Sequence to fold (517 residues):
Amino acid sequence: MTAPALSRSFRPALAAAATLAAALAGCDLEWDKPDLSAPPPARFKEAKPQPQPPIAGGRDFAAKFGSRELIELVERALDDNLDLAAAIGRIAQADAQARVSSAAQWPSISMTDIARTTRTPGTTINVGSASSGFNPATSSSSTSTSSSGFRARNFGFFQLGLTASYEVDFWGKNEDASKAARILANASRFDRDVVEISTVAAVLNAYFQVLTAQDRLRIANQNVAIAQGVMDAINARLEVGTATVLDTSQQETILAQQRATIPPLEQTLRQTRNNLAVLLGQTPESMTVKGGSLVKLKFPQIAPGLPSEVLLRRPDVAEAEARLASQEFSVLQARAAFFPSLTLTGLYGFQSALLSTLVLRPDAVAWQVAGTLTQPVFDGWNLQGQYDLQKGRYSELAAIYRKQILTALSDTENALIAIRETDRQMKFLAVAVSAARRALDAVEMRLREGTIDIVQLAQTQTTYFQTEDQLAIARLSHYQAATSLYQALGGGWSPTTREIEITRSNAAYEADRGPWP
Fold:
């Protein structure tokens, strides 16, 4: 009987068994899937509703800032970052798990070779013959006689053959397990893309922090020089009696406070360089960052496009969607476990009591075909619990998927707001710095003329020093907002990238799978 004919003959029995099991167990196999309908808005609040091509990838986006060193740092991070290496390792794991989960779809064949000799004591089989003198003998055994008259026997058994088993997947249980694992392999690739975008963003922000720390150090040193010049002028006035010890003490306080801002900036600069080295997969001692000034970088112009485009360009949204799709097949797999399972087993080979007659003899051929029908009837509601568990997991992933969509839209809106508002802040602070500088020049002129109030001098210096530092910090926030928008728009990712990753996943599944699919 062929396998298809056998399957057809079992179908009525399977249907009856499934009906009986459901009736006995009282199982609830209904499933109301959560509603995932959430159409994206037509436009962003903070941008014009115009379609835009995908944002450039990590290397190309770094080039928009006009720094060759930054481009090299991003390239090295994409090659050597350890988080990316770990993500690639997770891809290999997911591909292997897909092959493991798909194995049940195909027959299992193994070679079964047996060489066995069994000695049976004569005291257990020759009780009657010991007194009567009867000496039985067969062609499949050898005997030995002891002085007591009992004859022991040696039985030989030799087998050379193949055994096979195959579970007929009537309800798609094994196919669902395979699909769930293969979709998770896609998700692992989307996860790698998420890590890549995060790594590029981290390198960009770390480099901006290095430049900002260098800018703030230059500002701090310049302010120390200004405060020292004022201190020298007040000391000169003290020598001629036109200044007091109170005047010198107040200026000395300002000078010391300004010098105290330098160590934290040095700490930030060195520690940020060390963090940047880790992002590049290197030790801090083996890497140097020249840096420069954030003022010299170019600020890229970035258009977000439409919300629907952004959702298609976010690998984290694609990953959440893939995990949800995989879980749907896990639910179906758990549901199929309630129904009957038909397993076919077979044996074909040669068997003999003597090794010399094992092979190439038609009368030594042995074969066996069997079908086993298994139907759960009562298991303490274990299958129902597994089914409910998978449905609960689906509901969880559905909520995560919807939240990821909202997060993607919120990230984009927040990044657009940050770019716009930090730009306004920079313009206001630039005006404030210019005005504070004019005020400082004026009080220094009055100091030389000997008509300055020391309190007014102190306030003017402090205002100028603080405003310059605030402008440097606002500039950093402005550039970090550009990085945030790069992340929010799924930097370098697109629906085409999604299809490429799925194709790679399918190719990995097809490769090196041996003689069976």
The domain at 25-107+171-339+381-510 is CATH 1.20.1600.10 (Outer membrane efflux proteins (OEP)).
